[in-house]
Each structure stands twice: as C-alpha cells, then as structure tokens.
User: Which sequence fits this backbone?
C-alpha cells in the first residue's frame, strides 16, 4: 500500500523551531531548534529526564508547546484540526518504550489493528499484509501468541511491525534499546537500519544508549537542560565534541555533570553529627 | 463454540433476563396487570367531604371494581367537591341514574374508594351524567368528636 | 493556621479542576456512540464484562435481601396483625429503594472498580497513548463502549435484583411463615403503582448507572499511571460512587415520593 510521496524532498521532514515546553514550574525545553532530515536516521540523545519522550509526544501532537512551532512534512502540527491531525498520525509510526501493545488481543490482531481501523481491505489481503509485516521483524511464527506471552524484546518487535503496518513516512523510536539483552539489541539495531534504508522511512531515535545509537545514526542531536548542546554526525561528535558531550559519550562519572549531588561540604556534615 | 459466540449468547441471556424482570415487576408486582385499559365513560358526583379519596381510587358496585376516580376538583360556586369517575364502557346505560354514591374505607385504616348502590330508576347513567345522591366520607376526627360530645350531652 | 487554610484552598481548587475534567470527558464519550453503531461488537464485549459478570452477585444479593425483608417484615407486621401487608412491604421496599440503591452499590464495587483498574492499567502501559498515535480516538474506542454498557446494564440488574427479592420474600413468607398467598400478591398488586413505583425505581437506577459508570471510567482515565495510582483510583471509584448514589437517592426520593 503506497502512501503519497512527501511534499518536499530537500527540506527536512520535521522542523522544530524555538520550542519551549514547561511541566509544572520546570522548563523541559527552552528554545529548541531541531531539523530531522528526510530518509535518514536521526538520534536525539541526552541524560534521563531531559524530556526525550516528551519531545516525541510534542511532534506527534499529543502535547502542546508553550512556544515555538513543530512542522511535519510542511504542516504545522498544532495548527491542524483534529481530523487533519489524525490523518497526519496515520503517516507517522511510533514505537513506545514498552511496546504499548493491546493486551487483550493476539499478536496478529495487534498488527492488524491499524489496518482494520483505517483501511477497507478484504480479510485475505489484510492477512497477507500482516504476515508480511511480521515477517519483516522476524515474528511471523509468533502471530497467535498473546502479548503477555512475549518477552520484552519480542513485544517491541511486534510493536514495530504494527508501527509499519500503514507504511508510514516516519517512525519515532522511544528508547528502543533500554533494558534489552545483547541479542535483541542487535536485532533491533539491524531492523531500524534496514527499515530506514529499504523503505526510505525517516527514523527518529530517542535514546541514551550511546554505543548502539551511534552505530546506526546518520545525525545526532545532544540535548541537555532543554537546549541542543551539540549536533553532527557520530564521527564529528566523537572527535571534536565539547566537554559535556565528551563526558556523556564516553560515560565519564564526573565532568560538567557532577558526581556529587550539591550539598554542604563533607567536613561540615561530619562535624555537625559529632556534636 | 468459539469465544465470540459464547459472549453473544451470554449477553443475550442477560438482556432477556433483565427484560423478563422488568416485565415481572410491571405485570405481577404492580397494578398494571390488573388495570383496566379499555374504553370508559365519564360520570360525576358531588360530595360535601371527600375525606382521603385520591385519584385512581376504585369505583365499585357490590364490591366489584367497575371504574376508577379520574379527577377531583373543588367547585367554588357550589362549595362542594366534584369527583370525576371513569366507568368501564360495558356498564354504559346499565347503571340506574338514581344510584347512591358513598365514600368507603377499605378495612379500618385502608385507602378510600367509592361504592355505588344501584337505585330503582328506569333511566340509566350515560356519558357525562351526574349522580345526584351522595354520602360523604366518614372523617375519623368528626366521628370521635361526635362520640365525645354525644356522651357529654348524655351526661348533662 | 495559614498553612491549614492554604491546604484547604488548594484542595478546593484541585477538586474543582477534577470535577471540570470529569465533565469535559462526558462529551467525547457520548460522541463515541457513533463508533458503537458502526461496530456493535465493542458494546457487546463490554456488556458481557460489565453486565453479565455482575449478574451472579446481584442475583444472590437480591434473593437474600428479599428473604430478610420477608422475615423482618413479618415479625414487625405481625405485632399489628398486619401480616397480609407483607407482600406490599417487601415489594415497595425493593422496587422503590433497595433495588436501585443496592444494585448501584454492588455494581460500583464489582464492575466499577474493575473498569477503573482496567482503564488505569491501559493508561499506565501507554496503550491509550499508543491508540492516539495510531489515529484512533481512545475516548471513542475504549471509554464510550464501557460507558454505554454500564448505563444499560445497571437498570436491568436492578430489575433482576427487585424481581428476585420479591420472589425471595414470597418464598420466606409463603413457605416458612405461612402468609396467605393470595393476600401476599393481591396486597402487593393493589399497592404498587406502575407509574409511581416501578417507573420511578427504573429512573433511579438509570441515574445511578450513569453516575457510577461515569465515575469509574473517569477515575481510571485520570489516574496517576503507576501501580499505586491505579490502586488509589480504584478505591476512589468505590467511595465516590457509593456517596454519590446515596446522596442522589435522597434527592430523587424527595422529588418523587413527596
């Protein structure tokens, strides 16, 4: 099933300008500018809690920014009406951290879900399509299992099959490598790369797993304190990157992000206690 | 029998059970089952005091229900209560127009109803006619009052 | 002192915001009715999990409540020589009050808490988010069928409760206590008016069904998406539903039976 070709070929698929988003009294994003190029794997990295998942939700229109714009394929996401937003979402796939499969239906039914909702395919056509998607992630044989019977890695692969069911133009991966054993990790890494190359699906990978992400990313954005700290290709980052980036990429325990949680000095603390 | 079918059957059973229960309540528990739903004709009667008579109270002849009270109002010209009754059509032109209408009480403390004593006239009650002879309700306080003052009179 | 006032104030604002969110949820849920017309399977599945699975507890409760009414009613009425009014007493108590109210309370405990837990869990495992990203409206797909299922189920369950209660009272009255059969049913039929009693009872249970299901669904949808959050939401469902039912019962009874 072919999706219509995206409108612009040279401009980035996703453009984020001046994004500011607040949760409570904390500014999660404070003036963020990001360009996601078409047809490539872009990684967004940073320490836990920098709001990477929030960014994906903002791109998908589930959250509203306080300031700034997000454009996907030339359309301002938050200026769309609800039906238009829903149409845009059909062209975006999202892989949640936990897979977010519907727990009361089988693997097959989960992958078939978007097809049943948004298309009028006959049952036999639908079946073939679902099996092909499952084949792409290597889980065609698991089609009758229930989500509760799957391991974490398998659940994510099923969720990936579901995300590509409608042949989207882009997929967002929310922490795909977190908590995976090396084999599942390897499988996932390969799948992301293959999908991107074979089907020209733009991929946005949000992660803090440095090694795996740098392996497959074409471009990397490093985010901290709500702003872009550094951006470039993985090679560029590893060579020239600033102090902060280097601490992050090499996993050094101390640097711009301190080891010690801010507080009084050690001597003070100990002396106080001995009174 | 697969799971889908089973669910459909059980929901069907549930709905049926619910409807049966509603039907049971309507027909066997409430007065709907015994209520008369046919044609009626109107007859009026005037009383000095209707006591505790309510709309929908039964109208009986010889103890058998022949109709219901359909309305009660006060006539400011006449200073009497006008009770409108709906009598079942099968008794049209079958009740003498000099019949006697009394307000009775079911049991000692029960609900009040209207009892008709048939008269001897050859003319019958038709739609819109009025019963001339009536006896008002026995109001308990008045009876007790009479009894007390009556006794008092005797004593003097 | 000011700390206490500040707390009270913030609690008040929090409650009002909650109430607002709960009402904002109503319209999308109702609009989901169109989805249900296109896919009746959704409603059917929910009628099963919400309605059919509650039949057992409602039936047993109804039967026993009716039997207890028969017993207690008999002992009290026999003091005035009014045993013949037993049928009327049992039926009136059930149809007007106990049927709708107890059914709603049991429903909130059994089906309401299950609804809250289910929806809360779906929220915690990002299934609701996932549906949104797949361009499926979770309020229409997930919440609306459950709402309408509860709304339809409660009046039916209340009717079943009342019916079994009356039969229970009859079994005890006629079987154990030798109350005259004719007097039992005739007294009942003469005294229970279809419009004033039965219809009013049904109206009550419809209102209770609406409120209990609404509360259950909202608490699940609005909860903090952690296991602790879900458990607290479930408790809130039962407590709020119960209070709402009892409060509304007073208001409705005053309006209907004054």
Assistant:
């Amino acid at each position: 099933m072919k999706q219509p070709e995206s409108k612009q070929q040279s401009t980035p698929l996703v453009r984020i300008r001046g994004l500011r988003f607040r949760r409570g009294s904390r500014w999660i994003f404070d003036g963020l500018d990001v360009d996601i190029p078409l047809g490539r794997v872009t990684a967004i990295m940073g320490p836990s809690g920098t709001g990477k998942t929030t960014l994906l939700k903002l791109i998908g229109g589930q959250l509203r920014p306080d300031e700034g714009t997000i454009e996907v394929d030339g359309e301002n996401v938050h200026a769309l009406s609800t039906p238009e937003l829903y149409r845009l979402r059909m062209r975006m796939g999202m892989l949640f951290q936990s897979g977010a499969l519907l727990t009361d239906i089988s693997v097959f039914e989960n992958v078939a879900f978007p097809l049943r909702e948004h298309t009028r395919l006959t049952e036999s056509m639908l079946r073939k399509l679902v099996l092909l998607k499952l084949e792409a992630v290597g889980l065609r044989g698991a089609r009758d299992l229930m989500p509760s019977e799957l391991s974490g890695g398998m659940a994510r692969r099923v969720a990936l099959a579901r995300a590509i069911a409608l042949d989207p133009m882009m997929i967002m991966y929310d922490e795909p490598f977190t908590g995976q054993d090396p084999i599942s990790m390897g499988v996932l890494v390969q799948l992301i790369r293959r999908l991107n190359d074979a089907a020209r699906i733009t991929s946005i990978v949000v992660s803090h797993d440095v090694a795996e992400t740098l392996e497959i990313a074409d471009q990397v954005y490093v985010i901290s304190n709500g702003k872009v700290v550094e951006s470039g290709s993985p090679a560029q980052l590893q060579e020239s990157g600033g102090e902060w980036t280097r601490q992050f990429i090499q996993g050094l325990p101390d640097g711009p992000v301190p080891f010690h949680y801010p507080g009084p000095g050690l001597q003070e603390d100990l002396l106080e206690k001995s009174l | 029998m697969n799971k889908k079918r089973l669910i459909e059957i059980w929901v069907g059973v549930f709905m049926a059970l619910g409807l049966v229960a509603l039907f049971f309540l309507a027909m066997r528990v409430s007065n709907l089952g015994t209520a008369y739903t046919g044609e009626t004709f109107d007859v009026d009667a005037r009383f000095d005091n209707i006591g505790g008579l309510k709309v929908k109270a039964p109208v009986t002849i010889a103890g058998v229900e022949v109709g219901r009270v359909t309305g009660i109002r006060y006539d400011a010209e006449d200073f009497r209560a006008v009770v409108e009754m709906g009598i079942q059509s099968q008794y049209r032109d079958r009740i003498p127009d000099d019949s006697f209408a009394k307000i009775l009480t079911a049991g000692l403390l029960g609900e009040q109803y209207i009892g008709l004593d048939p008269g001897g006239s050859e003319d019958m009650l038709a739609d819109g006619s009025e019963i001339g002879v009536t006896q008002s309700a026995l109001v308990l306080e008045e009876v007790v009052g009479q009894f007390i003052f009556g006794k008092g009179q005797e004593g003097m | 002192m000011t700390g206490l006032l500040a707390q009270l104030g913030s609690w008040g604002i929090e409650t009002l915001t909650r109430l607002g969110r709960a009402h904002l949820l109503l319209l999308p849920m109702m609009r989901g009715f169109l989805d249900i017309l296109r896919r009746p399977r959704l409603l059917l599945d929910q009628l099963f999990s919400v309605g059919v699975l509650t039949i057992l507890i409602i039936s047993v409760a109804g039967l026993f409540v009716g039997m207890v009414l028969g017993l207690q009613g008999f002992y009290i009425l026999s003091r005035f020589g009014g045993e013949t009014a037993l049928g009327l007493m049992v039926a009136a108590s059930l149809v007007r009050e106990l049927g709708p109210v107890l059914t709603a309370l049991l429903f909130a405990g059994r089906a309401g808490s299950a609804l809250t837990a289910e929806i809360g869990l779906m929220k915690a495992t990002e299934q609701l988010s996932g549906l949104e990203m797949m361009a499926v409206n979770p309020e229409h797909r997930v919440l609306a069928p459950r709402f309408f299922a509860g709304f339809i189920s409660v009046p039916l369950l209340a009717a079943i409760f009342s019916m079994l209660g009356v039969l229970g009272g009859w079994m005890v009255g006629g079987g154990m206590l030798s109350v005259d059969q004719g007097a039992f049913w005739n007294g009942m039929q003469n005294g229970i008016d279809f419009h004033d009693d039965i219809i009013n009872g049904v109206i009550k249970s419809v209102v209770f069904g609406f409120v209990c299901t609404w509360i259950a669904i909202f608490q699940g949808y609005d909860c903090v998406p952690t296991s602790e959050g879900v458990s607290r939401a479930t408790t809130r469902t039962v407590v709020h539903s119960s209070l709402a039912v009892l409060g509304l019962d007073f208001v409705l009874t005053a309006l209907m039976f004054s």
Notes: Residues 1-9 of chain A have pLDDT under 50 and may be disordered. The beta strands of chain A are 14-23, 26-36, 41-45, 67-72, 75-76, 92-95, 170-174, 202-207, 219-224, 227-232.
